[in-house]
Amino acid sequence: MKTLEQVKKIESVVLYVLRKFPEGVDYIKLFKIIYFAQKEYLVNYGKVLCPDTFKARTFGPVPALSDKVIKLVELEEEDIDSYPDLRNFYNSIRVQDQMVYALAEPDMDYLSRKECEYLDKWYNYCKDKDSKKELSPESHDEAYTKAYTRYKDDPQLGTLTNIEIAKAGGATEKMVAYIREKELMTNELS
Questions:
Q1: What does pTM read for this prediction?
Q2: Do the beta carbons of residue 131 and residue 29 sit within 8 Å?
Q3: Which is nearest to 93 in space by CA: 37, 33, 21?
């Protein structure tokens, strides 16, 4: 499970993107904007823009926690108390007819100017594209393909790793080594 700080960061990223779509946005487009921004950010800085975990699903990479909250809202899950760390996120969005809407402002204390620039760039790139016909196929990169192959064999193995995402985005070997070292240290300390 994510820490409360990670949940707040994920919520802020989602709300930042949703605020750009006052008329709502479909899940696929929302998820692709976040994925493409994440990939480019990893390639350039060796760290994640959004601490969500991406899972391989039919229409491409899906940020798992964001997807979970959206599904809880869509199903009008009454038992949100079972997920106290997700309550604010749950209450900050609305889902209707597979469109997601922001009900709150993002907490900009969790987003840097550079992160917003990446989200803005990918919003501008994706906003007018067809989610299923254009964005979904485009997100089926090498990282997705590897994870989806694993997922079909064993559904517990369908997670895209940060290293796979960075490689799919064209990260240099030096950057991949940097990401690997950071992740090894994080794992050792946890």
A1: 0.96
A2: yes
A3: 21
Structural domain including 142 reads: 2-187
Provide Rg for the chain, Cα atoms: 16
Q: What is the full DSSP assignment across 113-166?
A: HHHHHHHHHHHHHHTTS-IIIIIHHHT--HHHHHHHHHHHH-GGG-BPPHHHHH
Q: What is the pLDDT of residues 84-98, one digit of tens each?
A: 999 999 999 999 999
The total of structural domains in the chain comes to 1
Q: What gap in Å lies between CA 115 and CA 94, rounded to an integer?
A: 24
| Beta-bridge partner residues of 101 | 94
For the stretch 119-146, pLDDT in tens is 999 999 999 999 999 999 999 999 999 9
Pairing of strands 54-57, 25-26: unpaired
Looking at the chain, the number of H-run helices and the number of E-run strands are 9, 5
Q: Where do the DSSP E strands lie in 37-86? A: 54-57, 60-63
Query: Apex CA 75: angle with CA 69 and CA 80, to 5°?
Result: 55
